[in-house]
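Let's practice the habit of predicting before peeking. Look at the sequence and jot down your guess about where helices and strands might fall. Then scroll down.
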Amino acid sequence: MSLNLQLNLDECALAPFESALDASSTAGAAQSTGDLLRAVRQHVVALGERSSPAYVRAHVATVHRMIDFVEHPEFSSERSARDAALGALSYFAEPQDLIPDEDPNFGLLDDAIVLDLAITRCGSAWQAFNEFVEFRRAHPAIEVKDRAAWMAARLDELKLALRHRKRSERLADRRYFAATALPMFRMN
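Done guessing? Here is the structure:
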């Protein structure tokens, strides 16, 4: 039997997680990025050795994507987004947090919430990174050296789609008006 739960946390309920993310961001800033990412990867390996609920496995995939977000050589994000991601990764690497990670069922629930908070703080930078990764995966032959080049290519793609949409709308309008320009009733 499984049960699907959706958590809606208000500001008061989120406060301890926000504080934990802020504290982890401060602690993560004191640590080198390389050391932090090594610790995160070790923690992921340790988690992989035990059976975990599906929500944990889904968030471990998010951890991998967040590591890529931080260290991707062709995509540099704003400092605030990078700091939020590093804070979440620092929190994730610490097994003794709000809910100790050794609890096999709920130990990573707090880590999942902190990861989601960090993604919210990253905002459009996280969304742009995911689009960038998907673009690279979908178009491996296109040589994209950095984020600026990708953004230019993406902008060209969006302009083309907008022109296509406008042309389609104009054609649809002509068909509509051509059909309605004829009198509906004939009076003799």
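How did you do? Residues 11-123 form one domain.
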